[in-house]
Design goal:
CATH architecture of the largest domain: 3-Layer(aba) Sandwich
CATH topology of the largest domain: Rossmann fold
CATH class of the largest domain: Alpha Beta
Radius of gyration: 21 Å
Number of strands: 14
Low-confidence stretches: none
Helix content: 25-40%
Distance between the termini: 44 Å
CATH superfamily of the largest domain: Nitrogenase molybdenum iron protein domain
Largest sheet: 5 strands, parallel
Structural class: alpha/beta
Shape: globular
Number of domains: 3
Order of helices and strands: HEHEHHEHHEHEHHEHEHEHEHEEEHEEHH
Length: 402
């Protein structure tokens, strides 16, 4: 059994649903006890203050569960969705709905009939990793709103998996969006956020089937990319471009070109063995950067959410900005991670600041918040990771310069 003494467990499935759907003007309903959505809004969802509620709890009391008072729940959701003028309703399961066998699909059909708006159920149980919940939510959103007849855009790019639990504040992705556009592409859709400069947050979802290529920047977007390749023939690239070499390789893959051979780093650093802990796609982007831009010989990745799907062969994947090393592994076990961090040959660690108390020595630690771990604690921390800004941030941390 895993034990957590200094860390909290990572966010789970319905947190991922909230993160994936938050910015699309819908109503996300967490089917759980009274206050079930409170911890999402207060701790893990720093965007809650922007306007009317997006994530609400079912407000289930013990007697509601015992007596099966389903009509009360349905009526509350209908009233809330209409009162807030939401565009859709998404029902997300929790351990409560899983244990008592709640028919959320039936609820969805009833709510749709009473409201006249799109309603779908996201099959979460509350025990799965948060990227799985986000992935299921994005698939449901796509099934509901994507337009198969959307006009083709020869230079259109969809960015998939842009959930705040993995990528942080929206501003951290702006350098990536800018790099894509400066290289001659146009942003067709950004899931899970409105496309920059777009008034209707769902328009990018509708137009997404017309894009020429998908860019998957977290594991949450991978299943949707595979679905869109199967349905619309859109190829996809997987990777978060961190640093200068990451940017060049990522853009070459989007163009369908072979990346240039790596050159010697301009500013090598005196570290021999780095350890990166976090979301897998970003972590492998950091690994690529540390090896190519800074010349670190050995870089190991600890993926705190499952990463196996990244390395499964797929006909639709035309590029992968990741290379699994022999010592890379998937674990969120505190004791195991602490052991890896304190290995005698590890001299550099990149991770969420919450992991720093696990260190017992003077190993160099570069903070890079992971919202699924630290929630809003480091939301406003000054850090970067995407393309050139990511390079500058790492250079400043490792060389002590701006």
């Amino acid at each position: 059994m895993k034990r957590y003494h200094r860390l909290l467990p990572l966010a789970t499935g319905y947190f991922g649903v909230s993160s994936a759907l938050y910015d699309f003007d819908g109503l996300v309903v967490i089917y759980g006890p009274a206050g079930g959505a409170w911890h999402i809004n207060i701790e893990d969802e720093p965007r809650w203050y922007r306007g009317p509620a997006t994530v609400v709890g079912a407000g289930m009391l013990e007697m509601d569960v015992i007596l099966g008072n389903d009509d009360k729940f349905i009526s509350n959701i209908v009233e809330t969705a209409k009162g807030l003028k939401r565009r859709f309703v998404a029902l997300s399961g929790t351990p409560i709905s899983e244990i008592i066998g709640t028919d959320l699909k039936g609820f969805a059909r009833t709510i749709a009939a009473r409201t006249g708006m799109p309603v779908f159920m996201v099959p979460t149980a509350g025990s799965e990793p948060y990227p799985e919940g986000a992935s299921k939510a994005l698939l449901a959103l796509a099934d509901t709103f994507m337009d198969p007849t959307a006009p083709k855009r020869p230079k259109g790019v969809n960015v998939l998996g842009a959930i705040h639990l993995s990528t942080g504040k929206e501003g951290h992705l702006e350098p990536l969006f800018q790099a894509i556009q400066e290289d001659g592409f146009e942003l067709t859709g950004v899931l899970s956020a409105p496309r920059p400069g777009q008034d209707d947050p769902l328009e990018g979802v509708r137009q997404a089937p017309g894009a020429a290529v998908n860019a998957v920047i977290s594991t949450s977007g991978l299943a949707l990319a595979q679905r869109m390749h199967a349905d619309y023939g859109i190829p996809y690239v997987v990777g978060m471009p961190v640093g200068l070499a990451g940017r060049a390789t990522f853009l070459a893959l989007l163009h369908g070109e072979n990346p240039a051979s790596p050159s010697e780093p301009e500013r090598p650093i005196p570290y021999r063995h780095a350890l990166i802990i976090g979301e897998p796609v970003l972590s492998y982007g950091l690994k690529f950067c540390l090896q190519r831009d800074f010349g670190v010989r050995r870089v190991d990745v600890v993926s705190v959410t499952p990463s196996e799907s990244l390395f499964h062969e797929s006909a639709g994947c035309v590029g992968l900005l990741a290379e699994r090393g022999p010592a890379d592994l998937d674990t969120d076990d505190e004791a195991r991670i602490a052991g890896l961090m304190n290995a005698s040959d590890v001299d550099l660690i990149v991770a969420d600041p919450c992991y720093q108390p696990l260190l017992t020595g003077a190993t160099t630690f570069v903070p890079l918040p992971h919202l699924a771990m630290s929630a809003r604690i480091y939301w406003d921390m000054p850090y970067e990771y995407a393309v050139d800004k990511g390079y500058k941030y790492l250079a400043a941390q490792l060389h002590g310069t701006e």
